[in-house]
Amino acid sequence: MNALRRMFSRRRLYSDLSAEIAGHLQEKIDELVASGISREEATRMARREFGNVTLLEERGREVWQWPSMESFFADVRFGLRMLRKSPGFTVVAVLTLALGIGANTALFSVVNGVLLNPLPYPNSDRLVTVDASKPQFKRGSISYPNFLDWHRLNQCFSYFSVSRGTGFMLTGAGAPEELDAVAVTSDFFAMLGVKPILGRSFTPEEDQIGMGHVVAISADLWRRKFSASRDIIGKEISLDGKGYTVVGIFPGHFDLPMYYFGQTDAYIPLGEFANPVLSNRVAGLGIHGIARLKPGVTIEQARADMQRVTNYLAQVYPEADKDMGTALTPLKETIVGKVRGFLLLLLGAVGFVLLIACVNVANLLLARGNTRSREIAVRSALGAGTSRLIRQMLTESVLLAAVGGALGLAFAAAGTRATLAALPSTLPRANEVGMDAHVLWFTIVISLCAGVFFGLLPAIRTARHSTYEALKEGGRSVSPSRRHAQGALVVVQMALALVLLAGAGLLIRSLSQLWKIDPGFDPNHIITFNLALPPQMNRASPAAIRAALHNFDAAIAAVPGVEGESLSWGAFPMYSEDDQNFWLADQPRPASEGQMYNMLDYIVGPDYLEVMHIPLLAGRFFTASDNENSKAVVVIDEVLAKKYFPNGDAVGKIIDQGDATHTFPFEIVGVVGHVKQWGLDTDSQNSLRAQLYFPFMQLGDNVISVVPSNSNVIVRATGDLLGLTDAIRAASNRLSKDEVLTNFETMHEIIESSLAPRRFAMMLLGAFAAVALALAGIGLYGVIAYAVGQRTHEIGIRIALGAHPRDVFRLVVGQGLRLAIAGVFIGAAAALILIRVLSSFSQLLYGIGGSDPVTLIAVAAVLLAVAFLACYIPARRAMRVDPMVALRYE
Amino acid sequence: MGNRQPRDLFPGALEMMILRTLKRQPLHGYALVQRIKRDSDDLLQIEEGSLYPALQRLLKEGCVEAAWGVSSTNRRVRIYKLTRTGAKYLERQVSSFEQMLEGIARVLSPVKS
């Protein structure tokens, strides 16, 4: 009989029913009358036995009615009442869910802000980064002459702009301040699609070599230093002692890959950099480009077009541009590519936590279903079918999940802030992370899914098995299938927890391996900072600059507690790098730059080796007499020595650092140990590892003029490093009030920040694993405690029949451990597969084989220990069962 | 179990008994009540109040079908008849009921250690 026909025949059904009931009543009365009772009395009796006829008909009719919105709301009301009735259960379930959902929402909001949302520029998907690529360097710096040609010849970009990080000392506006600045070509802001708040951008005329000094500043600096006054446009401000006219104010913060310094405060035209080196076609000045693709042009077409341009230039300038190509990458990929892997890894891990939380709540519901079986039985007696009961119970679980989700959202808002505070500064776009519609939808969807996920199984079980338990007064037995369901859920939890623990364990192991790596120097007791000499030194003679640096060296070395001090320029371990080409003097000079050898160069003072504790392997290091008047010398590291002087005869050899037209011979005077320049974990993967040291005082007159504005200082000291900063500042102040020392950092902090992303991933994964472990432990405890409660009677009989408490203990713990061990095996198998997959595409697991047995065994042991603890308490309780009490229930 | 007090039924039992009784022969409501009383030696008392909703449920589930007919006492009554679905459902119910009884029996049996 289909629903449609039923609808029309319903009235018929109802009238049949009332006719039938009336007939039944009549028959009863007739029979009573036949047994000799007066009709009046018989009617009364029959009606009394029969009950309320109207209600009866009503109930009979209800069977046929359709569920409606009304019944849904009734379910919701009833569900809320049920949740209110058992506050303990509700609080535990809601908190568990809020934890799981909150953690997921928090992490998703980070993933959403960093990976999913488009960059905050109009049509940002059309933006690409453009770098120079050579065979030994995939994403190198573009030389300015090449940029001008690429800009002129390409047919694929609507805008193509390059920029270069730099820095200035702002004076004459309150206290002197070190500004991070970027030199950009004139269409930089137009390319991004960013409008000035006030004033204008640069004109192409201002972006020419040697043109007048103009500057655009950030809104933040404008507010901080110039109290947001509109008169600033057209005024001059003093940067490094030179006057620059302010032409525009631009909004705060672009998170672009070429900004090494975070917040940029000032922009100047790139072209006005008056150093002749800018016109050198092979110079590497840290210039990188961003371009906007023309409408309809794909990145592949753009790559082909740039290939055409560079092929043409290689013919025109075979010296400089042989092997020169371009590397085009979507801008977003450049910015977030590095962190995608580990963010997704964490999102996966946090998903596991939610699964475990759901399984916990499912187990709670199963246990509760048992205590509710009488209520369920009544409902089914009132005519609720199985599906109707399931719907009612699912409504309850989705309600739970909704409350948990709402609370989780609040947790997430706090959690996101906490996550960002713990984030390494290397996480790009962190400032764009926040709650938005995506995050809200995500939370709603996972809450609903979670509600159905953890509610379905218990609902089906409870509804199916509602008929037996009600027979027993106490509803004390559990159907075997329900016990199996609970057991299976615990096994799943244990397996999930083991996978998370294994992941966290591997990361911890990998990190401790990294800490054991010798960086090639001793990072303890070293503090570093940046030095900027007074602005007027920028225009001083080379001799005066050298004298000022000597004075500075002497002043710092005299500070009590300082053991050694050295200037360093250009490169700095794990922090910045500078590379140079060279060839060996006893070999013919290569035809082009591209065929020269490449190495990292460090320009340092004579005490550098003692300060850094780098071992001297052969020859000597610099002395104070290696200066501008003596023969040019270098010291090389063991990597370079092994590579080019395999016979161990490097000392005394000459290397040449010239270019196409000149030769610059240097004599090798010593060999020192290799320093892990690229960070502890990635150094071995880097192609550019050979290192070479120059004496600071032998810097040529043309280069030394750049030094005063920024060089690094490295100090080895005894005692409290940060307490030393004041003494060092005081010593520098005695030399000159205008000398600025910034960026005090211990070498330890520098190493740590090079490991920060990995540490962050490890901390979060560790936290997730701890939560998972706790939840799985609680889940197991709940199931075992519940089972013991259910079996009190049985255990009582066992004890009465002579079972020893030890046997009881073994029985209970055995039951729990069996589940845990099953979970461990399944989890270990899953962990092995997952870890293999993960280690194939991420660098997170350094120096650990894909299946580190030590870690797996260790985390399995931890899990089993927790499982034992979870079973111990219920087992103790079971041992104390008094058979007399247990049996008295019957 | 010496006392002859009628006991309350557990839900689901009523349906089981209706189906069991209809398995032997089609009956109308009043006769069903009488028959169940008699078969259980008056141990079980059917509430007429719950009989009709139960019958309506069984009708809806397709476990029984009904038709107007004439009873042995010459009244116009609705006669209920077991369907194949009902017979299957009854089998399932009885076997799970027996399983439960067996479970009780096991718990009450001495320990095997």
Task: Report the portion of residues of chain B in β strands.
Answer: 5-15%
What is the number of strand segments of chain A?
A: 22
The shape of chain A is elongated
In angstroms, what separates the terminal alpha carbons of chain B?
Answer: 31 Å
Global morphology of chain B: globular
Please state how the strands of the largest beta sheet of chain B are arranged side by side: 1-3-2
Number of helices of chain B: 4
* Quaternary state of the chains: heterodimer
How are the strands ordered across the major sheet of chain A? 3-4-9-6-8-7
Uncertain stretches of 5 or more adjacent residues of chain B:
1-8
Mean pLDDT of chain B: 76
Radius of gyration computed on alpha carbons of chain A: 39 Å
Q: What is the β-strand count of chain B? A: 3
Helix-strand pattern of chain B:
HEHHEEH
Key traits:
heterodimer, A: 890 residues, alpha+beta, 6-stranded mixed β-barrel, B: 113 residues, globular, disordered N terminus
Give an overview in words.
- The complex is a heterodimer of chains A (890) and B (113).
- By secondary structure, chain A is an alpha+beta fold.
- A 6-stranded mixed beta barrel of chain A has the order 3-4-9-6-8-7. In chain A, strands 14-15-20-17-19-18 form a 6-stranded mixed barrel.
- In chain A, helix 1 (3-34) packs across helix 2 (39-50), helix 1 (3-34) runs antiparallel to helix 3 (53-62) and helix 23 runs antiparallel to helix 24.
- Chain A is elongated and about 140 Å long.
- A 3-stranded antiparallel sheet of chain B has the order 1-3-2.
- Chain B has 113 residues and is α+β, with helices and mostly antiparallel strands.
- In chain B, a hairpin with a 5-residue loop joins strand 2 (64-70) and strand 3 (76-82).
- Classes of the chains: A alpha+beta (890), B alpha+beta (113).
- Chains A and B meet through helix 1, helix 3, helix 12, helix 15 and helix 23 of A and helix 3, strand 3 and helix 4 of B.
